[in-house]
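Why should sequence recovery work at all? Because a backbone constrains its sequence more than one might expect. Tight turns favour small or flexible residues, buried strands favour hydrophobic ones, and helices have their own preferences. The token representation captures these environments compactly. In the example below, the structure is given first.
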């Protein structure tokens, strides 16, 4: 006999009514009869907005991505828009990526908005996520939706919400919208399409977005300089193939070699285990082509084209992948140098943006240019909020360790289209000067200190995994380490309690950014260790940062080995 928790069975039975289609009902009936684990995971909670919106496995249930959960979200969002902009004609933009069912789910979302008498601008085919952020402002919309699950496995999809400024939702709006959604019943969803309220959009937005990307990447490179740079690019079966080749070509970079086997959009991602450019295996085919073509730089983007992985020539002449912190340091230094050499009279109080788990070298870099570095929680919605909250200040650029970067404020999310153009521009600049990007990075370490970071992700799937992650953080709070790798802990930042405790001074003070379930430990030897559950994936992440002065390039390998040993000691102390 199969046992079901009463609350799970009760929720599942509500989906066996005429409100839901026959196919949905049949799957649920089969799960009730034969698959209690799947039934429990499908109904034990409702999907919620995290750092990257709502993301989950596709299928029937309240904890799944399907036409009903997305329809209910869209109905609640429609009601919220009407309350938020009572005197305005409402307009929304909708985009989608290469994932299974993305196009169909985007149409469902468009239908619900149109049924609520809201004007919809729906992309005619798949597009990069950053273009949706751009389109919201470009088309004077109050809201935007993109159907994507970034680099998650093929069974996932997702629903990201953007607001009138082009940035993702932030508190308290996310909670207010969730409350609006939770007040509804599934039978309240208006699914009937109003074709007169849906307009397909295409090249006109593409052209405006590409032009804006090129405008925001300043350079004095000649055509010859650009032609001299050999580039390998892969879209990893994702949406970037629709824009990045054209953007590079229009900007003058014509020496581009595309990994053709990965150029066709495909939500199954057949040539990779994971389409995540943070993972070296995802760029294997691109690296192989890079060696064949003797390329200077290799770039791969994730399926929705907001993250990018970069490989450059190392000391041994072979291509090696930079991590997200290294990439954002190179990009930020270039933007700050360009800014410092420009006429700054028109810009008021310039700043860059970073996150609490990214490299502390961003602060050091900003100080060297006498520029403010604002730091927020993980996720580009917080960098977008910095821009929105400080309209009197000029945003130069910003990034986070997880391979995302944003150039200027014309897009209010991480943007691999513009970041790819920026990376190629920097690579061409340093090549003109007889350097590689790796050599440029080492020169920055000599100037500012050698910072090295690693990320450890522990995957804990399902309901049991979520409880295990929660327990790990409880243990870290209730039994915090007094020393890590033999170095005393001198400061702890608990973002859930919004409290910073300095053990040297004995002073405790309030952290003035929104609460989040993150713990960060600082040790006497300058190490920084952060623990954070992912907002969109079943993971707990540990971010380790160590640093040492690097007085001369001749000492690079010695200091690098010293930092590796320190990282190994920290991992051993934490048991990860």
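From this structural description, the recovered sequence reads:
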């Amino acid at each position: 006999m199969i046992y079901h928790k009463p609350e799970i069975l009760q929720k599942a039975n509500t989906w066996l009514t005429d409100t839901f289609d026959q196919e949905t009902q049949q799957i649920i009936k089969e799960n009730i009869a034969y698959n209690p684990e799947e039934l429990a995971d499908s109904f034990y909670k409702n999907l919620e907005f995290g750092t990257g919106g709502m993301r989950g496995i596709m299928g029937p249930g309240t904890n799944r991505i399907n036409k009903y959960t997305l329809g209910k979200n869209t109905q609640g969002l429609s009601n919220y828009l009407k309350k938020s902009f009572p005197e305005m004609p409402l307009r929304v933009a909708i985009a989608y990526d290469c994932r299974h069912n993305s196009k169909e789910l985007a149409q469902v979302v468009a239908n619900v908005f149109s049924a609520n008498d809201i004007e919809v601008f729906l992309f005619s085919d798949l597009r990069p996520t950053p273009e949706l952020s751009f389109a919201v402002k470009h088309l004077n919309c109050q809201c935007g939706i993109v159907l994507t699950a970034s680099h998650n496995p093929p069974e996932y999809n997702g629903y990201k919400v953007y607001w009138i400024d082009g940035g993702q939702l932030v508190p308290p709006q996310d909670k207010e919208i969730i409350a609006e959604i939770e007040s509804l019943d599934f039978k309240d969803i208006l699914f009937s399409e109003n074709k007169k309220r849906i307009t397909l959009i295409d090249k006109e937005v593409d052209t405006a977005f590409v032009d804006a990307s090129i405008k925001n990447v300043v350079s004095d490179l000649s055509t010859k300089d650009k032609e001299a740079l050999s580039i390998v690019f892969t879209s990893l079966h994702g949406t970037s193939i629709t824009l990045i080749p054209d953007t590079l070509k229009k900007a003058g970079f014509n020496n581009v070699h595309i990994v053709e086997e990965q150029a066709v959009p495909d939500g199954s991602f057949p040539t990779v285990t994971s389409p995540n450019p943070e993972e070296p295996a995802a760029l294997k085919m691109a690296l192989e082509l890079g060696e064949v073509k003797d390329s200077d730089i290799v770039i791969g983007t994730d399926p929705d084209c907001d993250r990018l992985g970069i490989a450059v020539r190392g000391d041994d002449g072979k291509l090696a992948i930079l991590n997200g912190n290294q990439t954002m340091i190179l990009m930020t230094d270039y933007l700050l140098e360009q800014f410092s050499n420009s006429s700054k009279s028109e810009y008021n109080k310039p700043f860059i943006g970073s996150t609490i788990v990214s490299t502390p070298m961003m602060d050091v870099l900003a100080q060297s240019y006498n520029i403010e570095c604002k730091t927020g929680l993980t996720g580009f919605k917080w960098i977008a909020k910095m821009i929105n909250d400080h309209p009197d200040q000029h945003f130069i650029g910003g990034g986070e360790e997880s391979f995302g970067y944003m150039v200027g404020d014309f897009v209010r999310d991480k943007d691999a289209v513009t970041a790819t153009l920026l990376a190629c521009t920097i690579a061409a600049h340093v090549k003109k000067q007889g350097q590689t990007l790796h050599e440029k990075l080492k020169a920055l370490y000599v100037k500012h200190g050698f910072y090295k970071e690693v990320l450890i992700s522990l995957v804990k799937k399902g309901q049991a995994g979520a409880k295990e992650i929660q327990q790990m953080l409880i243990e870290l709070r209730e039994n915090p380490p007094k020393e890590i790798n033999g170095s005393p802990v001198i400061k702890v930042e608990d973002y859930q309690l919004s409290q910073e405790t300095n053990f040297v001074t004995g002073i405790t003070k309030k952290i003035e950014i929104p609460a989040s379930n993150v713990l960060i430990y600082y040790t006497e030897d300058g190490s920084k260790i952060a623990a954070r559950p992912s907002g969109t994936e079943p993971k707990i992440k540990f971010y380790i940062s160590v640093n040492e002065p690097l007085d001369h390039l001749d000492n690079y390998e010695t200091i690098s080995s010293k930092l590796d040993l320190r990282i190994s000691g920290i991992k051993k102390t934490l048991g990860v």
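A few observations help interpret the result. The mean pLDDT is 94.
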